[in-house]
Amino acid sequence: MPEIYDHKTIEKKWQEAWEKMQLYKTPEHPKKKQYILDMFPYPSGVGLHVGHPEGYTATDILSRFMRMQGFDVLHPMGWDAFGLPAENYAIKEGIAPAESIAKNINRFREQIKSIGLSYDWSRELNTSDPEYYKWTQWLFLQLYKKGLAYKKEAYVNWCPKDQTVLANEQVIDGCCERCGTVVVQKLLSQWFFKITDYADRLLNELTKLNWPEPIKLMQKNWIGRSEGAEIEFELENGKEKIKVFTTRPDTLFGATYMVLSPEHSLLPQITTADRKKAVNEYIEKTKAKSELERTALEKVKTGEFTGAFAINPATKEKIPVWIADYVLATYGTGAIMAVPAHDERDRQFAEKYDIPIADKPLMPIPEAIKKFGTKKIQYKLRDWLISRQRYWGAPIPIIYCDKCGMSPVPDEDLPVKLPDDVDFIPTGESPLARSKKFNDVKCPKCEGPARRDHDTMDTFVDSSWYFFRFADPHNDKSFADKKKMKEWLPVDTYVGGAEHAVLHLMYARFFTKALFDLGYVNFEEPFIKLRNQGLILGPDGEKMSKSRGNVINPDEVIEQFGADAFRMYEMFLGPLEDAKPWQTNGIVGVKRFLDKVWRYQQVFEAGTDNKQINKLTKKITSDIENFKFNTAVASFMEFLNENKQLSKENWETFLILLAPFAPHMTEDLWHQLKHKESIHTQSWPKYNEKLTKEETVTVVVQVLGRVRASLAFSSGASQSEVKEKALADANVKRHLEGKEIVKEIFVQDKLINFVVE
Ligand code: ANZ
Ligand code: ZN
Asked: Which of 80, 269, 532, 551 could form an SS bridge with 498, CB 3.0 to 4.6 Å?
């Protein structure tokens, strides 16, 4: 056997062999199933980033571990392939998105394969494939037919640079999430999904989920449930009433004015003639402002008096009605009762405009509601705006006829395919509007001339259901066979970045609940257990970016160190969910460990002790179960350092434990031991609980030879472990104070002596 692990030859050899023997093919009908899923990537032009394989390696280890434990595992990979970057690239370089995406996917697939991940490639899917988006369109129509997809005129977030509408979630600090341009408000007719119908269920069922608490909290805040009341105020002149939403009906006696949002529909009726000019000017000015600018607490308050007065139903006093941009049209009723004595924003406003502040006694909330209003639960969650005026997405399958109005595209005419004769230059209108071939269509009702909807769907629609499709990716009769979904779903473990806390994860939950209500699936939550991977930073501790020049290219790392070293280093970096910097000498250490494993098969001496391997088996088993991959890698390293003697059986156990982490090298060593079957089809080792128990020893701590403490350790505790605990001991601390340790004498399991000056 060669002295050196030649990763280039050996890893390639096994990757080809595994593919040929279809080692990772998903069993057709699972008995004991595990569905282990990665958030599928957007195949960008720059290729795989070292951040991608972090989660992928974790789920790969888990998948291999589960297979070895006798589970039938579904572990697929696919591509979230629609979206703006491909279209922007097309605009810049003149290459059709379908073409550039196909190229990127090929590169991504190659790169992922070079890591030795155990995906079942026969289930690969691509959201921009007509065979896939046919079902995206079909699902849209299911929601449409149930009244969960509707069209309405609405003020929408508009990015002037990308020339498209953005969902609220895609506006970060008032700017476009993609290009950073300041977002403006525009009144447009758009498609929405009625996710608000599910607000309560989306909130209540969070408690069922084994998800990181911060993600659950973000979803909870995003849904934003508030309990309060609606109260109507009569106008002094005129019959209209102004309805407000308040969480503090108990403060009604202190309401000394009212504020309507500048978009409020009553304004034309109630504004008095002398105030019209000022009010209209203010309305115009508000249009340029984002919600965030309008609602920031520290912002200087502005507004205009409408000339109208309302009657406070509790005090019967006449109070002025104002407009101000700090009241939003899209929350509650778009109007508030202002209580400057209790609300900070109202106080600032009242002080600025000299409106009375009345500190009146509070009354119990139930009494206030009973006397003056009705109980109301309000949510921050808004309906999901899904139409985009862009090309590279699934066309919305709706037809407009002058005679018959709006009709869904008949199921047998799906998919509505994207035309390829399109000019991509953005103009604010969807590029599809400029394709005659696409637009001209017969009305499904009267057969007369009609036109297609020329918007496409938000790419988050594509990714809201892909996990169903993996259960049955080639089905051309339905989005996935009901029985197969029942066999494989829900997803048992889902891994991806925390940046998806409110978008993708909320939408996927909504889709699942809607499909449950429609009778297609028998579960209401798609992802039972969720784990996040943290960012891998550059070696300088900063976020990796081209401009900083701190990007680590996975291809180069694999070329130099091999896939097994790359995988193990990705896991060794630190706790999966933490942000952590890439350190090149760290991977050198992992590589050195693997070379040691490679040689060990030749050098280990026959031993008989089973205690250590039992302990290791227990540790690796629980570390994988608990997603503690970094400590598992450390345990392998320690084990080899401490055990020169192993029986052949124990050495084989070691290899099996290591196989999910370093699948190539362990497979090769396994075959060198004359095994005919793959190491990856072996059963996961069992351990004897009795042999894993730690023995406790007492270690004496001395300072200059005098005993200062006796501390308990598990036997075999290392010098650094003992030292750390010794230095934390109060008495030892006292005797070391102001002195410098010049020497340490350490006798394992017995003593540590600090020599000081
Ligand atoms: C009177 C009052 C007195 C209020 C007080 C608060 C404190 P959350 O908890 O976020 O639901 N509000 C209602 N609709 C609004 C809108 N469209 N734009 C801006 N503000 C609006 O907040 C509910 C409170 O926010 C409501 O209760 C209302 O002010 C204000 F001491 O009513 B409150
Ligand atoms: Zn018609």
From this structure: 532
Q: Which of 432, 388, 457 is nearest to 176 (CA)?
A: 388
CA distance 106 to 118: 17
* 346 alpha carbon, closest ligand: 1
The CA-to-CA distance between both ends of the chain, in Å, stands at: 53
Buried b (16+ CB within 10 A) or exposed e, 43-66: bbeeebbbbbbbbbbbbbbbbbbb
3-state secondary structure of 305: strand
Instruction: Count CB-CB contacts under 10 A for residue 704.
Output: 12
Which residue has its alpha carbon closest to ligand 1 atom 19? 327
Determine whether 456 is exposed, middle or buried from the number of CB atoms within 10 Å of its CB (0-12, 13-18, 19+): buried
CB atoms within 10 A of CB 757: 8
Instruction: Tell which residue, 679, 704, 708, has the closest CA to residue 116.
Output: 679
The torsion of the CA quartet 599, 604, 610, 614, rounded to 10 degrees, works out to -10
CB 140 within 8 A of CB 396: yes
Query: Would you call 158 helix, strand, or coil by DSSP?
Result: strand
**Contact indicator for 409, 416 with CB cutoff of 8 Å:** yes
pLDDT band of residue 2 (cuts 50, 70, 90) is low
612: amino acid identity, one letter: Q
Phi and psi at 129, nearest 5°, equal -80, 130
Q: Of all protein residues, whose CA lies closest to atom 8 belonging to ligand 1?
A: 226
Among 228, 227, 251, 230, which Cα is nearest to 372's? 230
Helix (H, G, I), strand (E, B) or coil at 518: coil
Tally of CB atoms within 10 A around 415:
19
**CA angle, residues 145, 146, 150, in degrees to nearest 5:** 75
| Per-residue confidence (pLDDT) for residue 335, from 0 to 100 | 98
Q: Express each pLDDT in 352-400 by its tens digit.
A: 999 999 999 999 999 999 999 999 999 999 999 999 888 999 999 999 9
CA 390 from centre of chain? 24
Return d(Cα 509, Cα 234) in angstroms, integer: 42
Ligand 1 pocket, residue 562 CB under 6 Å: no
The two three-digit tokens of residue 244, written as one number:
């407000």
CB 82 within 8 A of CB 459: yes
| Distance separating alpha carbons of residues 140 and 149, to the nearest angstrom | 7
Q: Which residues contact 705 (CB under 8 A, 6 or more apart)?
A: 753
**Nearest residue CA, atom 7 of ligand 1?**
343
Query: How far is the centre of ligand 1, averaged over its atoms, from the C-alpha of 247 (Å)?
Result: 6
Phi-psi category of 562—alpha, beta or left, where left has phi over 0 and alpha has psi -120 to 50?
Answer: left
- Which of 57-61, 290-294, 503-507, 560-564 is predicted with the least confidence, judged by mean pLDDT? 290-294
Does residue 470 contact residue 78 with C-beta atoms inside 8 Å? yes
Strand partners, 36: 493
CB 482 within 8 A of CB 468: no
Residue 308 has pLDDT above 90, yes or no: yes
Q: Kindly give the distance from the C-alpha atom of residue 399 to the centroid of ligand 2, in angstroms, as a whole number.
A: 9
d(CA 430, CA 479) in angstroms, rounded, equals: 27
616-670 residue pLDDT tens: 999 999 999 999 999 999 999 999 988 888 899 999 999 999 999 999 999 999 9
Closest approach atom of ligand 1 to CA 326? 19
Cα(282)–Cα(437) distance, integer angstroms: 45
